[in-house]
Amino acid sequence: MSTLLKLKNVEKTYTSRGAQPVQALVNISFTVESGEFVAIMGESGSGKSTLLNLIATLDNPTGGEITLNGQDLRKVKEGARAKFRREHLGFIFQDFDLLDTFNVQDNIFLPLVLAKKPLAIMKNRLAKLAPRLGISDLLQKYPYELSGGQQQRVAAARAMITEPEILLADEPTGALDSKTSSELLDLLTDVNAQSQQTILMVTHSAVAASHSQRVLFIRDGQIFHQLYRGELNQPDFLTRISETMTAMLTKEGEGQ
Amino acid sequence: MKFYFKLAATNLKADRRLFVPFVMTTSFLMAINLIMLNAYTSSDVLFSQFGAAAGRSLFMFGSVTTAIISVILVIYANNFLRKQRIQQLGLYNIIGFGKGELSKMMAIEKLLLLLTTLLLGGLLGTVLSRISYLTLAKALHVNHHLEFGLSQQAFSIAGIITISLFIILMFIDEIWLIRKQPIDIVREQSAGEREPKVAWLTLIISVGCLIAGYTLAVVITNPLEAMSMFFFAVVFVIAGTYGLFTSGSVFILKWLRNRQNYYYKPKHFINVSNLLYRMQQNGAGLASIAILVTMTLITLATTATLFFGINEIVDQQTPVDLSYSVKANHQAAASRVTELAKIHHVRVRSIRTFTGPSSTLALLKKDRLNSQNTISGPFGFDNARSVQLMTIDSYNQYTGEHRALTGNNILIYTSNHYAGKTLKIGGQTFHVAIRATNFANAPKTFIPNLFVAFPSETQMLDALHHLYPNKSSAELKSSVTTNQDVMLSGSHANQVKLYQDLNKSGIALPDTVQSRAVNYDDTASMMSSFLFLGIVFSATFILATLLILYYKQLAEGYADERRYTILQRVGLSLREVRATINSQLLMLFYLPLVVAAMHVGFALPSSSAS
């Protein structure tokens, strides 16, 4: 396995006029190997979303460097970032973010249309992707006609149709009930296992994190702990994660 | 109570991007109402010399129209305002504002808006009224030192209109509050919108309406019919425009979407789907813009054409400087008029004398001329004729020619072609022996002229009797008068004085004196008033257009915000987002203009004919 994503001493400080600078991320360093499924866990306000925005080139770090496949993200110019995103990254968001003006098929085609890919390729890819995500029957429907779980699967299809090097998921189960959540997580696990799709997921849910192979705990803008799944099955991994979290909370208590 | 005032003031301030245009609109509308009302209340002064009644009713019409437009526009603006605030009102409801409190808050907001409107509108209206009054007075040749052009009555009426407007709005809001729970609407709003379907029936009907309207406008060249049919054409076109924008646009966009090679290109992809989504909500708004722009252009064009065509109109109506009728063969009139003219420093250049009965409207059926009493049916360009009978002697006297006719031969002059070799009047059949190609100073009217000269007076009176079957021969004989066309040289003012003196002198028969100079003043005052109305209306239409455009843009901007954020995340650069928004904006801006241009193109030939 080769290193796909590498963060080295990444910092992000927000400075707003007349207020104290806020350090959102402090000295973050980690790597993601190609084909890995990594979860970044943290409470809200821990800096995990900021981290994802930096990797997504939606924001700039104030220090350190991020490289994707050896390319320094800082060197991707502002105007080329949209192109960079649609060529290298795929996104799944908490609130699905499907466009209500398009039907399902066109929502999925969107990034490819923006990339000016020929129609034949789009159709070809969708034909392969749709059955895997179980959305073959939904293609002509509009987002408002779908359930939350269905919408999230469509969003996953949109993220994956560009065949991205890394799939970035921001609280993908945040707006789903537990049943559809586990369906989606199984789906992500499948995708990761079968097509060696690299996935970086940000979540505050231990259940969601337990589907990954490695969990990075982030607190107050710092990587606090790291947990490998190894040979554990998902329920056991969940227990490990929970224990770690409890330990973290206890330590937090001690610190005060 | 103080709390509500504070709350209302805070709301107005916070949502100023909604309320400022609203207050500007209501203030402008009040100003426009004031201008019209001031013109109306001053119409007696403005039209003191000529046509006071006509001027009064014209400005009355203008005042009523602007008031009606104000009501419609303000209700539209208020509905938009409320829609944009649903979320906010819902929030107030959630944190514990009952309906009573909400309606109190909204009423006080209205009160504050009303006070601002009265102040701003009053000020603006005063300035603009004064300016427009001075302009009008100048155009109408009125001594404008007389009055300031501002009347208390106008201010009271404009104030009452504005206050009533706000009371109406309060009622509408109140009804809305009673009928709906704001919290329900917040939920309703966040629910997705359905994909628009092509409303085939609407589409077919609206295309039909548009074709019908255009056909009416183009096909009808007869000005008499055009005047009445133009109204129907307008109704058809308005209905067609609304239908076309709402259903036609959906049809076209769906067709574009089905053309995959066109649709799956970045720019088209986003634009077509956005517009498709948008058209359903905004078709009506765009149609309104198209119609308002059309109305503005047509109003301005016709009133300006009329204004700049004053000379032509005057030439048509009064081809000679002075004309009057006297009793048949009254010899002394000419010399007395010449004397009168001298007193007023006007020189008589020429006098043409014509003796005959007054002209009459008759119906021409093939080669038979019938009295207008005999047929009850539509008058048209085809069958109606303005008939002037005369003897050949009168003809010769008037034209200075030396024509001779005998037996049943007649001379005719027509302003449109008459092919017949004979002309039947009553039991008589006349042979057209001479066709005059020209008749000096023949009145130019919508109805074609048919002049007939007979060999003898008896024949003429006989023919006249058939056109006036209800009148006795004696009456008809006495209706024959002598008319004199006088060409003058002298100043405009002196010619007006000559006209007034001649009217008083009793030389001419009552109500027969016509002066080109006086007619010019009359026409000019009418046309300037038309132009004034045209400009005021156009200003109102433009205001309405701007308001709709602004609110539409604002609403869409907010609706699009989320959409473009998603697009950016998926991989659309900021520059591409901007380009897409711009091209969509331009499309939405130009589409109504293109349609308006099309309407105007079809309408103008027709409206300038009438």
UniProtKB/TrEMBL annotation, chain A:
Residues 5-245 form the ABC transporter domain. GO terms for biological process: amino acid transport. GO terms for cellular component: membrane protein complex. CDD domains: ABC_MJ0796_LolCDE_FtsE. PANTHER family: ALPHA-D-RIBOSE 1-METHYLPHOSPHONATE 5-TRIPHOSPHATE SYNTHASE SUBUNIT PHNL, LIPOPROTEIN-RELEASING SYSTEM ATP-BINDING PROTEIN LOLD. One of its GO terms (molecular function) is ATP binding. The lineage of its organism: Bacteria, Bacillati, Bacillota, Bacilli, Lactobacillales. This is ABC transporter ATP-binding protein.
